[in-house]
Amino acid sequence: MIRVSELRKSYGKHEVLKGIDAEIRKGEVVVIIGPSGSGKSTFLRCLNRLEEPSSGGVYFEGRMITGKQADLNATRQQMGMVFQHFNLFPHMSVLDNLTIGPRKIKKLSKDEAEAIAVDLLRKVGLEDKRDAFPGSLSGGQKQRIAIARALAMQPDVMLFDEPTSALDPEMVGEVLDVMKQLAMNGMTMAIVTHEMGFAREVGDRLLFMDGGVIVEEGVPKDVFLQPRHARTQEFLSKVL
Ligand code: ADP
Ligand code: MG
After folding, report:
1. Ligand 1 center to residue 104 CA distance, Å?
2. Which residue of 57, 83, 104, 192 has the fewest CB atoms within a 10 Å radius of its CB?
3. Are 28 and 204 spatial neighbours (Cβ–Cβ below 8 Å)?
4. Given this model, what pLDDT does residue 230 score?
5. Is the CB of residue 212 below 6 angstroms from any atom belonging to ligand 1?
6. What values do phi and psi take at 154, rounded to 5?
7. Of residues 223, 171, 228, the one with CA closest to residue 31
8. How far lies 51's CA from each of 46, 54, 61, 193, in Å?
């Protein structure tokens, strides 16, 4: 579904991504791990063009989606993104957070958008919060709403950048459960996370990034049990 070819990204003289080649197949859950500063967020942000790559390309179902000719809005609709810090619209109710994108960008009617929103709120277990404002919700609830908001655009792929890193420990499980449900229903997902148990249980494939490159990849269980590279071993010895 997504192919990344020779992707490079520099900020000034600082090269952050140093030639990434990767694929995400339809229905696959790809988990990305690696030390802080290794380029994980930049990689995800290049996929949906929150950042413009310096060189190389990203292809979605064979079509190049990077570069000047590509339609930025189409790409953003195809790829939902969930951030560490939720980024909900604080002045809008939960229902409005979920319906504004579909109404403004996909031109759905209010009724159509609300029907989708209510269905998603039920799926993330928060149908009773439709009229609440983000400020009144717990971190775990906010993140479940952020996931529902991204899903409301009916994307083909979901990108998650450390979705549980800002949460109190007791709220991590409820968010991972929603993500696991999504995975079981066949959603294509790329997830940056430090939750190694989740990576092992839900991930189809694991990418270990360090210093702007993918150092190692494989089935999560295999990489955890028998990392091939010294850098992977060292990282895993600190986090497992
Ligand atoms: P990770 O998500 O793995 O922690 P990032 O992709 O956030 O890593 O960052 C990789 C490197 O790129 C870091 O050294 C970071 O300081 C740098 N970087 C990220 N975003 C920017 C930016 N907008 N401008 C300049 N440097 C950046
Ligand atoms: Mg990051």
Report:
1. 31
2. 104
3. yes
4. 97
5. no
6. 50, 60
7. 223
8. 5, 9, 20, 20
